[in-house]
């Protein structure tokens, strides 16, 4: 069975926000990527709403709720939004001031663990599946399972930014071992960050993964080939 594909459409909204316009509409992009074979539409509702807006999440969940996967922090603004609009699933990610993109997995301080326990409970009460964005580290996986997460998304940044074949091999081994442990802990295992048409195959070959979440490389390819073709090409690789 092929891996599921989640397509992040944040940068469709980035283009829209560049002109403070209403087009291109993420709602249209969601319809296109789902028609082209994506299993999920992924959006990151940031506190600053620099691309995806709360109104986008509302519209997406109204039309495509069972296919919408929202990334967000434990910030009250984001949590109120997802509890209100009830997407299929939510991935809790860290957000740092001034970051261009997410830089790594959650840092499970005691304070964050306490906050997450409450957030996960509230999301489950609304029948929303919960994923935690984590580095491929055994300790973090065990914490995620203990907190009651349904899924983890392993951060593939270190793999995607590896500079040598040796580093690439080591990062892949980390991902493979972490995916196996996560599965043994009863967690559904996803992966994402920096995956593209050149480096995705090795990750897709790790049998424990059920879904890969990919955005920037697909939107980048879509500029030249069109969004349906870009999604179909990635789906075929998986």
Describe what this molecule looks like in 3D.
The chain is an alpha/beta fold and 238 residues long. It has a single domain, classed as Alpha-Beta Barrel (TIM Barrel). Helix content is 49%, strand content 16%. The chain has 11 helices and 8 strands. The chain has helices at residues 10-18, 26-35, 54-64, 76-85, 110-125, 138-147, 157-160, 165-184, 200-204, 216-225, 227-237, and strands at residues 4-8, 40-44, 68-72, 89-92, 129-134, 151-155, 188-192, 211-214. Strand 4 (89-92), helix 5 (110-125) and strand 5 (129-134) form a beta-alpha-beta unit. Helix 2 runs parallel beside helix 3 (54-64) and helix 3 runs parallel beside helix 4. The radius of gyration is 17 Å and the shape is globular. The model has no long low-confidence stretch (mean pLDDT 95).
């Amino acid at each position: 069975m092929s891996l599921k594909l989640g397509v992040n459409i944040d940068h469709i909204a980035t283009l829209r926000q560049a002109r403070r316009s209403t087009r291109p509409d993420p709602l249209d992009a969601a319809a296109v990527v789902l028609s082209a074979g994506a299993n999920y539409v992924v959006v990151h509702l940031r506190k600053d709403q620099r691309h995806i807006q709360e109104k986008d999440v509302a519209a997406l969940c109204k039309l495509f709720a069972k296919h919408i996967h929202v990334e967000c922090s434990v910030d009250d603004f984001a949590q109120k939004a997802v509890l209100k609009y009830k997407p299929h699933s939510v991935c809790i990610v860290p957000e740092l001031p001034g970051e261009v993109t997410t830089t790594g997995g959650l840092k499970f301080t005691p304070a964050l663990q306490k906050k997450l326990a409450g957030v996960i409970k509230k999301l489950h009460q609304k029948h929303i599946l919960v994923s935690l964005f984590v580095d491929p580290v055994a300790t973090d996986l065990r914490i995620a399972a203990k907190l009651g997460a349904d899924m983890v998304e392993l951060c593939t940044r270190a793999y995607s930014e590896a500079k040598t074949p040796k580093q690439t091999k080591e990062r892949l081994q980390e991902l493979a071992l972490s995916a196996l442990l996560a599965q043994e802990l009863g967690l559904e295992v996803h992966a994402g960050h920096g995956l593209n048409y050149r480096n995705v195959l090795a990750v897709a070959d790790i049998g424990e993964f059920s879904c890969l979440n990919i955005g920037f490389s697909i939107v980048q390819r879509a500029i030249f080939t069109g969004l349906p073709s870009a999604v179909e090409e990635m789906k075929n690789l998986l």
